[in-house]
């Protein structure tokens, strides 16, 4: 009589143990799988996307991704997936410095998709290698900005003649200085490969992929998977994971059409760059330091 | 439940919390902070000397050497001429300060015989960026005026409409056309406007379109070493002399060819300058621009024009122009 209840409770205990085992296994199995596969992987290649207009906001996001790549010990290499025609000057330089900081720590390979021009090209300069496609447009090493500002009405009080109203000569010197910085860094980073002179680079031409490989603006023809594999190889990894960092979707762009002498040009109003930006042309826009966005809008025209 | 029963669990609770929190606090001290060393990359990557762009030095005064007095300079304002008051003031102020008179011809004052009448009373003519063509009568008047020793100065920017070519071709001067344009286009109005601007990627003042020009021959280049032109046009003079030539490695935008391009030329009593920006108050004192502006003013007042030219119409003809509506020159 005493055995019966004990046998029943043992059976119940067995069922509970079984159920618990299934539950625990279900939770731990993916962890174990990850552990197993990561034990086989030598590290991670972080693919960071640089697309659209290079602005303070987009560079904030990219910088965060790059910083994460530098501090995460499992990330051994970075691939920049670039499709951008540039943007504002200061964010482009910030991007360049962030990529440079990363490239000093681990291999960085750029893979240009459609366009890698102007500010976007500036940003990828420190990469160990630049991969392009046959249809890639790359280059446009130059700066564009308005030549002066609209005179102020008497109702506006300023404390000096140059306050928020640079002269054409001052603007020319500013843009020239920014150009020298840009061209100088192109020559420094592409120096061994580039067959063009400093003067030829300063023409600010955009080159098609195959020509870019020949003149040294880029290194090889190849798509993104090739670039990723090459980055892993540079980092000495045979088996590797790939982590993709996509930028936040850029909403809030208003497209405007404006009439110019050459016909209709499409501009986009970007809250990020605080002005009008022509869509089709590679840009490195230098804006006048100013508090009135209505006037800075002419910076890219 | 007695308080004694709670003592055990309470001690256990305190000990566990103390170990976990304390451990978390001590752990960083044990493992060491992992703040990475920060290199100042921006400073390391910036060559301050290489990116410094010094302002152009402005010096000197615009002065005239000519001792001629009380000459009358006519400024064409009748042909949609594009020259800002700001730029014009540099030249007119110099002329007026030296005792000369500057008159402007408006569109109304250029109709029919009035144009020649204005020329008759003047010693020199300044034409800048004409946007409208001249009538054959007006051109004939200018030619006669020039042949009689009346000084004519033409200023022409690249963007200006080629109403200028009508005048220049008469005077043996011309605005240079792109080499790819082929023969026969010198007489075509539309093509001249496409002649492009000069640029120099090697040596320039602040911008590739601001080219330096050095002196050649003639009175316009006296005392001039280097002049800065912005967005300038190449000019030629078939029988005259080149006053200023853009420096080596200057190229024409349309052909991209490096060549020796004249920017100012002189042919007897006529002169042409392929730019107006050198007259802007902000540019007039850089390099030797002030000397060139002075030379240009001197050129305007140094002519020896015979009086009564262009000749007044004979009584038989009368001032016939008003009755016969003048037509624009179709080709030149």
From TrEMBL, chain A:
<keyword id="KW-0720">Serine protease</keyword>
<dbReference type="GO" id="GO:0008236">
    <property type="term" value="F:serine-type peptidase activity"/>
</dbReference>
<comment type="similarity">
    <text>Belongs to the peptidase S49 family.</text>
</comment>
<dbReference type="InterPro" id="IPR029045">
    <property type="entry name" value="ClpP/crotonase-like_dom_sf"/>
</dbReference>
<feature type="domain" description="Peptidase S49">
    <location>
        <begin position="169"/>
        <end position="237"/>
    </location>
</feature>
<feature type="domain" description="Peptidase S49">
    <location>
        <begin position="103"/>
        <end position="146"/>
    </location>
</feature>
<dbReference type="GO" id="GO:0006508">
    <property type="term" value="P:proteolysis"/>
</dbReference>
<protein>
    <submittedName>
        <fullName>S49 family peptidase</fullName>
        <ecNumber>3.4.21.-</ecNumber>
    </submittedName>
</protein>
<dbReference type="InterPro" id="IPR002142">
    <property type="entry name" value="Peptidase_S49"/>
</dbReference>
<dbReference type="Pfam" id="PF01343">
    <property type="entry name" value="Peptidase_S49"/>
</dbReference>
<keyword id="KW-0645">Protease</keyword>
<dbReference type="InterPro" id="IPR047272">
    <property type="entry name" value="S49_SppA_C"/>
</dbReference>
<keyword id="KW-0378">Hydrolase</keyword>
TrEMBL record, chain B:
<keyword id="KW-1133">Transmembrane helix</keyword>
<feature type="transmembrane region" description="Helical">
    <location>
        <begin position="12"/>
        <end position="30"/>
    </location>
</feature>
<feature type="region of interest" description="Disordered">
    <location>
        <begin position="303"/>
        <end position="332"/>
    </location>
</feature>
<protein>
    <submittedName>
        <fullName>GldG family protein</fullName>
    </submittedName>
</protein>
<keyword id="KW-0812">Transmembrane</keyword>
<keyword id="KW-0472">Membrane</keyword>
């Amino acid at each position: 009589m005493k055995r019966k209840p004990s046998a029943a409770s043992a059976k119940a205990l067995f069922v509970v143990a079984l159920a618990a085992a299934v539950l625990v296994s279900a939770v731990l199995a993916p962890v174990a799988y990850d552990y197993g596969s990561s034990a086989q992987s030598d590290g991670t290649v972080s693919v960071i996307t640089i697309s659209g207009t290079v602005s303070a906001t987009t560079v904030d996001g990219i910088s965060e991704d790059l910083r994460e790549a530098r501090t995460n010990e499992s990330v051994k290499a970075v691939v920049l997936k670039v499709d951008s025609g540039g943007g504002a000057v200061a964010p482009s330089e910030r991007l360049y410095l962030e990529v440079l900081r990363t490239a000093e720590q681990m291999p960085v390979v750029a893979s240009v998709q459609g366009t890698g021009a102007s500010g976007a090209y500036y940003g990828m300069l420190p990469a160990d290698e630049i991969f392009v496609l046959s249809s890639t447009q790359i280059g446009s090493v130059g700066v564009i900005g308005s030549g002066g500002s609209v005179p102020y009405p008497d109702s506006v009080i300023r404390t000096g003649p140059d306050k928020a109203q640079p002269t054409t000569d001052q603007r020319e010197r500013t843009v020239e200085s920014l150009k020298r910085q840009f061209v100088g860094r192109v020559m420094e980073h592409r120096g061994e490969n580039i067959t063009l002179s400093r003067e030829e680079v300063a023409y600010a031409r955009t080159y098609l992929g195959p020509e870019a490989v020949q003149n040294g603006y880029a290194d090889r023809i190849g798509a993104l998977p090739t670039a990723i594999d090459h980055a892993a190889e540079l980092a000495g990894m045979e088996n590797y994971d790939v982590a993709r960092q996509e930028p936040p979707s850029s909403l809030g762009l208003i497209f405007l059409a404006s009439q110019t002498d050459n016909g209709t040009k499409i501009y986009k109003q970007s809250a990020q760059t605080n002005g009008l930006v022509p869509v089709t042309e590679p840009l490195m826009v230098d804006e006048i330091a100013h508090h009135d966005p209505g006037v800075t809008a002419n910076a890219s025209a | 439940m007695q308080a004694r029963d709670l003592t055990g669990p309470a001690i256990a609770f305190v000990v566990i919390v103390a170990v976990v929190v304390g451990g978390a606090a001590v752990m960083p001290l044990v493992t060491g902070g992992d703040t990475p060393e920060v290199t100042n990359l921006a400073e390391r990557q910036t060559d301050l000397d290489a990116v410094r762009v010094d302002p152009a030095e402005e010096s000197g005064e615009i002065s005239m050497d000519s001792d001629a007095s009380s000459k009358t300079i006519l400024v064409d304002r009748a042909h949609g001429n594009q020259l800002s008051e700001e730029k014009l003031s540099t030249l007119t102020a110099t002329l007026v300060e030296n005792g000369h008179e500057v008159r402007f011809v408006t569109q109304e004052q250029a109709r029919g015989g009035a144009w020649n009448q204005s020329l008759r009373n003047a010693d020199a003519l300044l034409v800048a960026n004409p946007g409208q063509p001249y009538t054959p009568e007006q051109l004939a008047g200018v030619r006669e005026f020039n042949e009689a020793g009346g000084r004519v100065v033409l200023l022409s920017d690249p963007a200006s409409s080629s109403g200028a070519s009508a005048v220049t071709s008469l005077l043996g001067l011309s605005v240079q056309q792109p080499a790819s344009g082929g023969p026969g286009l010198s007489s075509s109005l539309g093509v001249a406007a496409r002649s492009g601007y000069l640029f120099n990627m090697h040596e320039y003042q602040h911008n590739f379109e601001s080219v330096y020009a050095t002196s050649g021959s003639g009175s316009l280049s006296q005392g001039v070493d280097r002049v800065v032109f912005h967005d300038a046009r190449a000019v030629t003079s078939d029988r005259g002399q080149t006053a200023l030539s853009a420096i080596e490695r200057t190229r024409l935008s349309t052909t991209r060819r490096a060549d020796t391009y004249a920017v100012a030329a002189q042919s007897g009593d006529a002169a042409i300058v392929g730019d107006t920006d050198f007259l802007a108050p902000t540019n007039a004192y850089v390099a030797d621009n002030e000397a060139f502006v002075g030379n240009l003013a001197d050129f305007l007042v140094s002519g020896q024009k015979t009086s009564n030219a262009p000749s007044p119409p004979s009584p038989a003809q009368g001032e016939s122009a008003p009755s016969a509506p003048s037509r624009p020159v179709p080709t030149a």
